[in-house]
């Protein structure tokens, strides 16, 4: 997934007191972390806060990071936990937060110049996918995002979530099953 | 190989996480089982849909804000809705509810008692005569009274 030796070099510099080395890691992973937060939380406001919190926590705990572990799985673990904490927001706060659930996923059109019908269909599918994803339980949503959007292996996901690969396998299978049903319902409603 | 076992294998097959032997068994099963083949095709279609999803990019200046928060010694990113703003909004909702109840009471204060009286009167037993004079029931009651007097 990423060049671990580059990460190790930056982490070594950081541990030797060169705190600015952390910025290299932020710049390298910021898009992935923000993307993960946005898919997990469903809105860009919460996503930015959560992504910032994740990097701040990583900075505060980087001295305890074990060099034999993978930095990005460690960072992903912090991010996933930050997003899960964010979901447990106080009742009043949740009343005033807007959800971007109605903002559709933008699906890349297959052909270079798609017809308006194809574009419309792609937009509708993107919207249905985002809504369906929002209906999954947090456990299933997390695992399917890490697999389908972050393109991680079962082993990496197991490492991030601190569960067995068997658990990852069954959760992904269940998430796909629920998503297939939700997407089928969407098509039948059309 | 039965369908319930195949069902478990479909997802890891799509993700390329299946052992060679299981892969061959699944492929052979799907050649003869239309139900499992349909399930695989639907799951594959879903997988392809995700593959086309665009990625969200960090807003402009994100890493600068992260580093600024770190250098300021913040332990948490500044929330878009500060706690005091959340509380203020909570109080605003409570105020609207209380105001609604109060103004509703004030508005109905003038005419509600009369209306209520009318309603009570209309259901009162005083105005309800079970056997009005001239009705069959009235005649029957009158005859009973005469008989009793005798």
Characterise the protein shown here.
The complex is a heterodimer of chains A (190) and B (150). Chain A has 190 residues and is an all-alpha fold. Helix content of chain A is 73%, strand content 0%. Chain A contains nine helices and no strands. The longest helix of chain A has 25 residues, at 165-189. The model of chain A has no long low-confidence stretch (mean pLDDT 84). Chain B contains seven helices and no strands. Chain B has a domain at 3-51. The model of chain B has no long low-confidence stretch (mean pLDDT 81). Chain B has 150 residues and is mainly alpha-helical. Chain B is flat and about 110 Å long. In chain B, 70% of the residues lie in helices and 0% in strands. At the A-B interface, α2, α3, α5, α6 and α7 of A face α1, α3, α4 and α5 of B.
Give a brief description.
Chain A has 190 residues and is mainly alpha-helical. Chain A contains nine helices and no strands. Chain B contains seven helices and no strands.
Which short descriptors sum up this protein?
heterodimer, A: Arc Repressor Mutant, subunit A, 2 domains, B: 150 residues, mainly alpha
Q: State the major sheet of chain A.
A: none
The radius of gyration of chain B is 40 Å
For this entry, what is the oligomeric state of its chains?
A: heterodimer
Please count the helical segments of chain B: 7
Coarse morphology of chain A: elongated
The succession of helices and strands of chain B, N to C, reads HHHHHHH
Distance between the termini of chain B: 100 Å
Number of strands of chain A: 0
How far is the N terminus from the C terminus of chain A?
Answer: 39 Å
Runs of chain A in which pLDDT lies below 50 for 5 or more consecutive residues are none
Percent strand of chain A equals: under 5%
Instruction: Using the coordinates above, name the CATH class of the largest domain in chain A.
Output: Mainly Alpha
Secondary structural class of chain B = mainly alpha
Percentage beta strand of chain B: under 5%
